[in-house]
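Review this chain:
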Amino acid sequence: MEKLGRTLLKGLAIFLPAAITAWIFWRVFLILDRILPFHTPGFGLMVLVGVILLLGVLADNWFAAPLLRRFEQLLERLPVVRLLYKSLQEMTQALIGERKPFQHPVLIRPWPGSEARLLGFLTRHDLAELGRPGWVSVYVPNAYAIAGQTFIVPSDLVEPLEIESSQAMTFAVSAGVTGAKEAN
């Protein structure tokens, strides 16, 4: 009976993330299909992909790019919208944009003399502009979340990690369950 319970939990661990992800995507597509005046199933998905593609084309267009920048500047002037928009924009740029701040996986000691380590990503190599020369900033992602914390630490508490950044990120957000292979 105990083995049956463990097997059931393993199955649930596989089923739940897949089912929740599928449900979220299904809900988004249903909402898009309801908003649009056409009642063709899947049309919302096509419109969403089309809008994203159009924005990408416009961002590369010499005429439309300044208009998109002006729109972004408008959003950045609205107090609550600015916080949400800027945070999402920077996170999106970090994950899929050309600027890749999570390319330097590191281990940091939370305090001098500690044997514990936090897995993170070096985001600034020097914080002299903040009055902290010789200090660095390290982003430490939370497990199973799209959040994390930024630590400001002396550079001597930081050890470079010789693995791919994607492996380190997978390891960190999965709470060490998957991801990083042992370094040589």
About this structure: DSSP finds five helices and five strands in the chain. Residues 105-173 form one domain.
